[in-house]
Amino acid sequence: MNYEFPGALPNQNIILTKTCLIEEANCVLIIAFYKGKLVLVRHHSRGWELPGGNREEGEPIIRTVIREMYEEAGGELELIERIGQYLIYEQGQLLFVKNIYISKVSALRELPKGFETEEVMLLDTIPKQSEIMEDPAFSPYMKDNVYLIVSEWIKEHPFRVGQ
């Protein structure tokens, strides 16, 4: 099943699916759990959000997941599973193809210097969409239906179990 809805930013449209619509993703979104707690990062200008980012040229997409998790949260990943993909269109042009991954973090190290995030937060519960929408501390990227729908997909996922 595909979902279609407006993006977080003006003139954006998103298509979200559990399947892979386009093989070559250029970005990743990581829903990471450390000891059963959701990992959020605070971007220096956008606020609290899920880790993720752009694929570097020639980089395998799974390597992008590993690199972005380290750069944004100091996280080392133990398990990684692709759970979906979304396409971001702006004024009819496809801009981003983001693979969505759920992961289990084996270790959180000191936050690397020189990257765009300033802090890591661990949450016992996944915030409700209404909480995120009302809180200006959250990034606009958390305020579209991607987060709402994907948080339902992962409710019973085994990576959420703490150890």
UniProtKB/TrEMBL annotation:
<dbReference type="InterPro" id="IPR020084">
    <property type="entry name" value="NUDIX_hydrolase_CS"/>
</dbReference>
<dbReference type="InterPro" id="IPR000086">
    <property type="entry name" value="NUDIX_hydrolase_dom"/>
</dbReference>
<protein>
    <submittedName>
        <fullName>NUDIX domain-containing protein</fullName>
    </submittedName>
</protein>
<keyword id="KW-0378">Hydrolase</keyword>
<feature type="domain" description="Nudix hydrolase">
    <location>
        <begin position="20"/>
        <end position="144"/>
    </location>
</feature>
<dbReference type="Pfam" id="PF00293">
    <property type="entry name" value="NUDIX"/>
</dbReference>
<dbReference type="InterPro" id="IPR015797">
    <property type="entry name" value="NUDIX_hydrolase-like_dom_sf"/>
</dbReference>
